[in-house]
């Protein structure tokens, strides 16, 4: 079975541009998580969804960040406008709530904002 | 509230030597405990997990961890280090009914030839 799929793997953009990161969770998983990883702050949970509904977005840094999950097989994380301090690796993870504990991570998107 | 402490942000061991990465947790309810490994430029990969039952848990690549409730610990071990074990290792905790993982700050393992 395919794991969590993220696209693009690398994104370089200029400050002020809109960035959209995409994630396809493992088929059958009903929870999805967005994380950000930087050297300074480590791994941070941004938001998570259960059955396509946002459950906890307390980690979203500011209004420039938004996330959607229109269906069980797709989620996006959007940054508008992007800033250099948003440069990081963004991970998506999925899990099957109520059955098998543990999250499964995608390969990440490395975002560089210049 | 839950928390995880990983002692030692950097650990170096010689090839063939014992690997011991330390993890202590805090949880007000029975914990689920996890170890993840992150190789350079990759995502986190689940190494092993403890939920209930046997306290000694075996994972991939020869790693194992033991849940010790009295010590609130879940240390990761491997009898003989291999060069390919060089990576960053994260300990994490959650519990029944709570999918959110609380991660430790990670331990970078270096293998000395």
Q: What this model shows, in words?
A:
The complex is a heterodimer of chains A (114) and B (113). Chain A is built from no helices and eleven strands. In chain A, the strands form two sheets. In chain A, strands 2, 4, 5, 6, 9, 10 and 11 form a seven-stranded mixed sheet that branches. Chain A is globular, with a radius of gyration of 13 Å. Chain B is mostly beta strands and 113 residues long. Helix content of chain B is 0%, strand content 60%. In chain B, strands 2, 4, 5, 9, 10 and 11 form a six-stranded mixed sheet that branches. The radius of gyration of chain B is 13 Å and the shape is globular. The termini of chain B are far apart. The chains are: A mainly beta (114), B mainly beta (113). At the A-B interface, strand 5, strand 9 and strand 10 of A face strand 4, strand 5 and strand 10 of B.
Shape of chain A: globular
What's the total count of β strands of chain B? 11
Mean pLDDT of chain A: 94
Tally of DSSP helical segments of chain A: 0
Radius of gyration of chain A: 13 Å
Radius of gyration of chain B: 13 Å
Major pleated sheet of chain B: 6 strands, mixed
Mean pLDDT of chain B: 94
Distance between the termini of chain A: 37 Å
Taken in chain order, the helices and strands of chain A follow as EEEEEEEEEEE
Number of strands of chain A: 11
Low-confidence stretches of chain A: none
Structural class of chain B: mainly beta
Per the principal axes of the C-alpha atoms, what is the gross shape of chain B? globular
Termini Cα gap of chain B: 41 Å
Give the amount of beta strand of chain A, in percent: over 45%
């Amino acid at each position: 079975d395919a794991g969590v799929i993220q696209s693009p793997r690398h994104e370089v953009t200029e400050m002020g541009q809109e960035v959209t990161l995409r994630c396809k969770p493992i088929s059958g998983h009903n929870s999805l998580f967005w994380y950000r990883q930087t050297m300074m702050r480590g791994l941070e949970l941004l938001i998570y969804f259960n059955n396509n509904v946002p459950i906890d977005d307390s980690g979203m840094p500011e209004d420039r960040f938004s996330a959607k999950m229109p269906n069980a097989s797709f989620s996006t994380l959007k940054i508008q406008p992007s800033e250099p301090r948003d440069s990081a690796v963004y991970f998506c993870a999925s899990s099957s709530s109520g059955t098998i504990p543990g999250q499964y991570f995608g390969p990440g998107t490395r975002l560089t904002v210049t | 509230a839950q928390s995880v402490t990983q002692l030692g942000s950097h650990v170096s061991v010689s090839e063939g030597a014992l690997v011991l990465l330390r993890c202590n947790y805090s949880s007000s309810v029975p914990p689920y405990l996890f170890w993840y490994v992150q190789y350079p430029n990759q995502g986190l990969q689940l190494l092993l997990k403890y939920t209930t039952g046997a306290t000694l848990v075996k994972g991939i690549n020869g790693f194992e961890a033991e849940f010790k409730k009295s010590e609130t610990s879940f240390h990761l071990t491997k009898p003989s280090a291999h060069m390919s074990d060089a990576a960053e290792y994260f300990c994490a905790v959650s519990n029944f009914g709570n999918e959110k993982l609380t991660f430790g700050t990670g331990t970078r393992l270096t293998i000395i030839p």
